[in-house]
Amino acid sequence: xxPSEPNYISPQEDIRAVEAMILAQADGYQQDLKAALDxxxxxxxxxxxxxxxxxxxxxxxxxxxxxLTMAAAIELLHTATLVHDDxxxxxxxxxxxxxxxxxxxxxxxVLTGDFLFSKAAKLAANTRSIPVIQLFxxxxxxxxxxxITQMFNNRCRINRDEYYVRIYAKTASLFETSAASAALxxxxxxATTEKMSKFGNYLGMAFQIIDDILDFTGQQDTIGKPxxxxxxxxxxxxxxxxxxxxxxxxxxxxxxMQGDCVKNSKQLNELILAIQKSNAPRLALAEAKRFVELGxxxxxxxxxxxxxxxxxxIARFIVDRKL
Amino acid sequence: xxPSEPNYISPQEDIRAVEAMILAQADGYQQDLKAALDxxxxxxxxxxxxxxxxxxxxxxxxxxxxxLTMAAAIELLHTATLVHDDxxxxxxxxxxxxxxxxxxxxxxxVLTGDFLFSKAAKLAANTRSIPVIQLFxxxxxxxxxxxITQMFNNRCRINRDEYYVRIYAKTASLFETSAASAALxxxxxxATTEKMSKFGNYLGMAFQIIDDILDFTGQQDTIGKPxxxxxxxxxxxxxxxxxxxxxxxxxxxxxxMQGDCVKNSKQLNELILAIQKSNAPRLALAEAKRFVELGxxxxxxxxxxxxxxxxxxIARFIVDRKL
Lengths: 323, 323
Description:
By secondary structure, chain A is mainly alpha-helical.
């Protein structure tokens, strides 16, 4: 569809419809759930996953109502995982706004996350597509499994393969499912669905790499966490991996290479500063850009037009976020 | 099907198949998830919900594989809610066996519950029935909403209607969905599905009333909690409601009637003792039996045979549990 057509609804209007659909999920339930959902939606977010779903769905001719429903399902699933993550990490702010667990008891926070999961699954079921529902439930399992693996294993370990597996589970899997479900709801052939799936996957990988770079280069008041927070938590991300590859003789790197966490805070601060000053963040950015270009390549055979142009712009926007 | 038929698989074999299906959900995931699922399954439980699904499905001629899958989905959903409940309540034992949160961090326990939700939803999706999947996700929302309502409202309040609403959400809704989904998977007419739905609902109401009686009359080492634990937590259940109706002049009752929790522990112990010694537990049992008979009435038009006899026995067993 072209924006010059009279019935064209801008993505912003679609996004508002998605947000209204999400909010309506609390109708008829305990009033504090409604308040929580209001708060979570008002806390913002770029709605990048719904936007990808909307543009792919439009580009490939899916039923608009099913597309909006799936966009709401994915955004709500994303929100539910954030609610439980913030509780587990004890985070009190997200995007500068108090988290649910900063205001509620742990019990109420766990239950609100569970409620959002149930409603996300309900919305996915409302698409009436069994493959989409199965993909959706698999993705939740993948995300949670990734978090448990991160919790029990792989702390303070420099391993690029493990890093890719982890960011796939953490972020790329939901981007992949977003794009794949939009294709599935469009009824396109399997080859196109696989390409859309890869498009989502590559964008998600890039998105997480950028997040991991911002953890080193971002301003504390922008990201709401101390600089180098991941490494302080024992989480080795791409900038650290790339720094280690160029500095195999660094003492702290050697310690990490042996799977030992750097616990001495002076040493940790020095390592974080060294990574910031090094070439590693730029190399990581190049890697994210490589993923974005791989993603854009997947769009080659899709219908040329406004939606495809927008999808390319979204892909490029991911690596142009404030670094 | 009749047990004398050569291909007849006993419900015990079906239940073992359901348990195997549940355990297989952790295949390919982080090993601690497998260990957690092993532990949770080994902690027992009567598998009453799967048994109801299996007998209704057989009685009404559903596809056996879909029935086993749904039985696994419901039992796993039940297990997931228990994992989060025990964490929220800080319970260290369930059925005399350490809870997951007694051994794991809160974070790992939250995530394990989430993983079980995702796999329960996946199993429900594997029945390939949209109405069943929608019913399933609605039920999770109902259960969680009930818990949040219990957390925020209705503490220390004597109100029979609120009590019924609460135990529907807490217990009867999942029994109802168990029975209704077995009917839906059998493809019977809507009237039969509604009767099966009511059968499950009434059995669930009876089941929770018995649990609430056992909280007063059970042995501490059997139920694993101090006697009168619900009331100690500010939760007014049927025995207390019935006691209050017969003893409107009791000081503690008067306090509860005004919505005030009884916080003085001497007064609380006296109230619990008075309820135990009163007619209230027997009156509550009569109420549970009334629900069971209402449930059995719903089976009147179903095929006469082994399965129906078993369903009647299960219904009666609910009120004959050790009191």
